[in-house]
Amino acid sequence: MRLSLSGHPGQRLAEEIDAPTEVFICAWMDYNREGISEEEKSQAARAPIQMNNLQLYLAVGVPVLFNFGIVLAFFLLLNGNINSRLDAMEHRFDDKFAAINRRFDDMRDLWRAELHRVEEVLDARLKHLEER
């Protein structure tokens, strides 16, 4: 949301010296105090606002570090959520494979019992044929 700067006394002066209105109005407000002559105001308005290295590093570095912290916290929370879901899925797979292993064991036992019964039937028939 931008503030409307039309009608501000500093806007006219900013247009005269071809300066960005927002920057100029801030400078104009700093120097629009009692006890400062018009010449000093004019010189202050025409002087570019400069920033030293520490201010630049803070202006750039603080938002970057803040964003990094927010992204890091988001990924840590997301990672914990993903790990819990993966653990739950692993337990479900373990349960399903355990059930499948039980079914294979049951089928193996069933086949052994059936083969044992077939073997007994075949032995009985062979004995019957040998006796004849």
Please give a structural write-up.
With 132 residues, the chain is mainly α. It folds into two domains: 1-50, no CATH class; 52-132. It is 81% helix and 0% strand. The chain has helices at residues 9-16, 21-31, 38-46, 53-131. Helix 1 (9-16) crosses helix 2 (21-31) and helix 2 (21-31) packs antiparallel against helix 3 (38-46). The longest helix has 79 residues, at 53-131. The protein is rod-shaped and about 140 Å long. Mean pLDDT is 79; it is low at 1-5.
Secondary structure topology:
Layout: H1 9-16, H2 21-31, H3 38-46, H4 53-131
Helix pairs in contact: 1-2, 2-3
- Please tell me the total number of domains: 2
Roughly what is the average pLDDT, rounded to an integer? 79
Structural class: mainly alpha
Gross morphology: rod-shaped
Question: How many β strands by DSSP?
Answer: 0
Oligomer: single chain
Radius of gyration: 44 Å
The N- to C-terminal Cα distance equals: 109 Å
- SSE order: HHHH
Strand content: under 5%
The proportion of residues forming helix, as a percent range, comes to: over 70%
Can you summarize the main beta sheet?
none
Low-confidence stretches: 1-5
SS element count, helices: 4
Features:
rod-shaped, single chain, 132 residues, mainly alpha, 81% helix, 2 domains, 4 helices
What is shown here, in short?
81% of the residues lie in helices and 0% in strands.
